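Protocol step 4 of 5: obtain the predicted structure for the target chain.
Materials: sequence only (see below). No template structures provided, no constraints applied. The aim of this step is simply to have a reference model before the mutagenesis design in step 5. Sequence pasted as it appears in the construct record:
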Amino acid sequence: MPPFCNDPGVWGPFTTTNPPDFTPCFRNIVLSALPLALLAVGAVVLGEPSPGVEGNGDGVRRSVVRLANWAWLLKTLASLAAFLSIAVRLHSATSSSETVLDCISLVSILLVIFAQRRDHRRGVRVNAMTTTFWLWKITTAAVYLRSLVLQSVTSGVEFHSTVAIIASSTLVLAFDEFLPLQKSHAADSNARDNAGALSLLTWSYIFGKLRKGVSTTLTFEDDVWPIPPLESSAFNAELFERYYDPRRVLTTWGLFAILMKAQYRRFCTATFLKTVAGLLLVVQPILLDYLIDFVQSWQPATASDRSTPQPQPLSTGLLIVTAMLLVGVASSLTGVWGNDKQWNLYYRWKTAMVALIFRKSLHLSPDARAKYDSGAIINLVDNDAIQVGFLGTNLPEIIGVVIQIVSATVLLWQRLSYATLVAMIGLLALGPAQARAGDMIGNAADKQYEAVDTRISLTSEVIKAMRVIKFYCWESIFVDKIQRVRKTELGYLAKGRLGEAFVCLLSNLCPILILAASLAGYILIAPEDAPLDANRIFVSLAIFNLLRVPLTEVSMSIPPVFRSIACMARCIEFLNSPSATPYIHSTPSTSPAAIKVTDGTFTWSASSAPALPSLTLSIARSSLVGVVGKVGSGKSSILSALLGDMIKVAGEVEMGGDLVYVSQTPWLFNASVRENILLGRGFEERWYKEVVEACALADDFAALPAGDATEVKGRGGNLSGGQKQRISLARAVYARSAIYLIDDTLSGVDSHVGRHIFDRVLGPDGLLKDTTRVFVTHSVQYLNAMDRVIVVDAGRVVEDGTYDGLISEGRKMAEIIAIHEEHQHADSSAAPGKNVSNPSSASETSDATAVPSEGEADSTLPPTDAPPTGRVSLHHFAFYIRACTYPLFLLFLFSVAAAEAINLGSRYWLMHWSLANETTPGVSQWPYLATYIAWLAAYCLVYAFASIFFLWYISPRAAAVIHHLLLTRVVRMPMGFFDTTPLGRILTRFQANVSSVDTRLPDEVYDVMFGLASVGVSLVPAVVNTPMLIGFVGVSVGILSFTLIFYLGASLAYTRMKLTTEADHLTHIDEVLSGLSTIKVFNRLSHETTRNASLYDNLQRALLSYYYTNRWFSLWIQLISSLLTFAAAMFAVTYRSSLSAASIGLSISTLLSLGADLATITMRFGMFQNDVVALERINGYVHLPVETPDEDYAPVEATWPATGAVSYVDVSLRYRAGLPLVLRNVSFDIKNGERVGVVGRTGAGKSSLIQSLLRLVELAENDNTPLNRGFILVAGRDIAQVPLPRLRASMVVIAQESFLFQGSLRENLDPTGTAPDSALWLALAKVSLNTYISTLEGKLDFSVQPSGDNLSQGQRQLLSLARVLITHLVRGGVRIVVLDEATASVDVETDRIVQRVIREEFRGVTVVTIAHRLHTVLDSDRVLVLEKGAVVEFDDPRVLMRRRTSVLYAMVHGRGVV
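Step 4 output (structure tokens):
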């Protein structure tokens, strides 16, 4: 039987005979057989399926064409050639290790051929495992061939078969590289999918984009590849849902198990590659040991030597150096690819969580929806899901590091024997210490994210209600409210930072301290023949240096793991929230009832009393039913119950046909007006025109710059309230449904338009005459045309019958009509009865410029958010340093430099110590050890100070400064900014960008600064010992600079694309959640889910493209560090006689950690660059124009305004240059204490008039440019000369859109907190809400949901009126009251309350009323009539009503008020 190894060295790795070579066992088993077997098994087991045509993981792409089949056939033939060559060589094996190698190789090739066939069928271009297998096969075969040549075997079967193996393996790679896989859908392919083997391995497929990014700015449309199928949102969500049962309560371990099941292959691949990379790093100190031995063999004899050293052959040194290069390159490739798989796992887990959270948000129960508003869900998507994804990067890292530490400990045992126990105890003690710090971090993270949720929800509410906030000058109040939450958040952030600083100290200082303790232990037990020499000291130093990097990685990974666990718990709590339970059943088509509710009891919350305690309802098909009642009576709740949006406690609900819903608050999304009407349905031109005409939109479309192709901006900010309601109604009409639920749609339109719409759409002769219509309304003038009228009170149907029948009964219905008639104050001489209802004949026009940004025809981003181009300017980072303050940041940098300088000094002391041991045998070791410990103590103190000072003090301080600056600037921006900027884009600054400043940017600055200092420390000894290395370092720096130029342009462009697409995705989430009821009834949930997935895929496309560039750059960094180590080692071999072993040990031991340091710097630098772009976006908002600050005004006398007189003098107004005028030469005077009504058709300029009075749109001083001109006087003073808070404090506004925020009722009534409870109850009594509020749980402390969703529209409006009263009673100084369509959405009784309160409480105060309900202004002192932005009438309403040609007369009679 042949020997196993044929060499006395057995496992080597190097032979003890000449010529020097690897031992056969090491070469055949360790270097060849084991890696090949692992790679082959990995290729089979870890190969991932591609989603097929149906999008599932089991599908197989059938789009492979003939050329691909030929490519696979040639690859298979080349693989079989390698198989046959090994089979031939097997017969000539001279040792058992060669036989084992060949047998394992044969089996491995068969496995690889199977994997190649499977990948071919699935359309996979290249499998990284199979590529690496053939590369390693070529490498090991070359090593085997070299051994044969050294043994003078240059012919025969063994030699020729090995050459054949190399040739056939090379052919396999060549076919992979040069015969591309052709797919039938090539336009949808990703460059990575079509990359060849070497291109994929080296990431060179991205180089075309990198080269383009140097000269031009990359664009999303041209330079971002389609999403790979395996990374798509739909595929990952489906994969996750295979293992997720929504009926079971999800736990933390349950969610983790689901994530692992969905992506176990990718997790195993990432862990395997990170482990291999770590083990290859551990090999480097072994090679360093051999190199030091080689150099020592060439040193002259010293006093400690007992014999003259025998120099080792030069070829041995060259072999060691070559091995160091190969191990370095292999470690670089496996490390970079391990990072790729880690981050790929992050993408997939994050994508699955985002998709699942969004899908769940569409089906929440009313209870859960009250808890999770859009701000909270956006935070889950934009923060928590990302943190869960980070588990995918951190867990493989931690596993690989643990294995690396164990291997390093074994290696250390060979050098320090039992002294290694000290190191083991120290490393084991790290676990509990880091776990304790992790608990601290996790607990702080839980509390911090709760505060983040609160802050984002409040910020979202504030942005949505910014118009009202500016009305009341509440900017500073809400800034303080948000800042209080922010202070709490930063308190927990600082606490978590302290834990992170402790973890960093443990990971960075412990290896050095453990080394000192281990050396001390070795001194105690060291035998006389094994002193502390250069080998032991510097190999141990190299091992501990290598341990420092993985321990640092663990320290970087542990805090995110605990944060991820905290975020996972939050996601689980959300996913476990109850879903809405469908309770609506279909009725047979033969049933006479279209809607039937039997003994229904409905509630908004399982813990609250029923809102509809006993509802029985039957509505016949094709009937028109009106629902009326006072504020808070439950009218809208009935519609919600019919929609399935409430919790059904008892009863049955049946629906006989398709249902659509028109909300009281119109929902529009970011698309063209036509797309908002069609809502995914096909375009039928004739029907579309009919609907547009019936909804009185034809003239509006004619006035819009692009007609119905005009894009609707965020929240419909570029349309008037009436236009939004009519578009919403047109969408419902166009749908041709069987049942319509309409919630007071006509409240926001003008008098004659309302009559036109009722007659042409809702009435007995309208387009919907053959459908079932349930119409909730406060406009009682339409009730006599309805088939039935239902009167609701306290959630119960109290009357139900025909209009005439209910009137004759003289109960609730008669009371409502009587109240309405009291409000009809027409002039007695006005002629009654004549109905001018044709909007065209009554000049029904709309200039569509009533609110900001109308007239914009393009659909591009607003100029304020146009994505920047080019490189990130250093002044953005300077912005961060200023937030840190320059002195504090410079002190941090000085501390970093001082710490690393001390660290370098300690290493030179080790070199001095080893030289002393060589030159002076028997010298006492304790003084040297004591001095070394002193160096370490100084290093620990300075390092600890730098870490804690930056992470705990400087970075939270900078985060507070930047957020405060952003918040205060945003709330001071003009209203035009909020009207043209989608909510998601603004929230991105406060969510994702601020999160970067809070957590990621400080980590990156910290790691990059310490990393750069560490790199400097690593290079100094090598350059000092071998000055010739300076040239190589210079070349390396040049190559790095060259690659950096390519990297920066593309990576910055992709980062900006990522941030822009992220904002679009968040905007879509907010849009969908705000219009969820509408989306549900139009059966658009599936479409919106697909749309959201598409937007998220766009985000992922940009993110993946960025990551490809980062991996390319990272690989170059790693390769250059390996080349630097190779160069230093080569110089050591070249100058082996003139360099000491200690100096070589110091140089190489420090350089061995250079690659890991550079890799950390690279990763952190890429992330740093990403987050500097976040700073760029924040800084961009900080430098946008804001409203004129108070200090820019001349002093205003304390008594101003003494009166409420208002004068407009030749005022013309447009919202931005290039837009049409919305006010045209407007001039009029309002006397002090006068009550003036302002009327006009939609788009006439009514709201623009109020915005100019409040300076929401500025009139420039002495502005005679085409933009704005004229001036406005209040109490005789030009308001352009009055500070904005002073101006707005002199008037109060009751807007159509009431604003309530999440918090107590007390806070909503008095945000300033200055009014006593007695004033609050008095104001509530005056608006007739005191009785209702006293029945609520907590009374004044009753919890108001976001936007006041747990109160009715009328109640919210009355609370807004009460708030105005409190402001007037407490603050005083109010001279002008503005009612901006304040009663448009309330019933007649509430309207009466509002008018009564205004008359009684604001006597002597100027009152300006904008209203659609003309009876509310007919008793005014004068009425101002606007038409197309110009004043057409301004006189006593009695005078105007006597003039039959007046516009007011036509409007009043068109409405039928008189």
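Step 4 remarks: The longest strand covers residues 593-603. The longest helix spans residues 475-525.
Proceed to step 5.
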